[in-house]
TrEMBL record:
PANTHER family: CYTOPLASMIC PROTEIN (PTHR35145:SF1), CYTOPLASMIC PROTEIN-RELATED (PTHR35145). InterPro entries: YjbR (IPR007351), YjbR-like_sf (IPR038056), YjbR/MT2646/Rv2570-like (IPR058532). Coiled coil: none annotated. This is MmcQ-like protein. Signal peptide: none annotated. Pfam families: YjbR (PF04237).
Amino acid sequence: MDLDSFRNYCLAKKGVTEELPFDDTTLVFKVMGKMFALCNLEQFEGASLKCDPERAIQLREAYEEIKGGYHLNKKHWNSIKANGRVGDQLFMELIDHSYDLVVSKLTKKDKELLQGM
């Protein structure tokens, strides 16, 4: 997966915005103001995605390209290298999983706003 594919896939999801809140190179994707994905714009090598803690451990054991989230809470975030054994299909599935996790934790009001978009 390349940067354009990653970016387009994230932005196609309902209620997603992108911003650069940390610096000029860390692109962050949010749903209803809550972060679910981030990557480096200058050197796209992969992305960090939110993940269920049990699944995160399983993924790290199965793929050397998946590590605990770089500069993030390693219990809830994975950093995934692109273009390794983790193919585009799994990468997209993990983006979906991250997005769905964040949406599931939204307030009732935000969930209703999201459905109306």
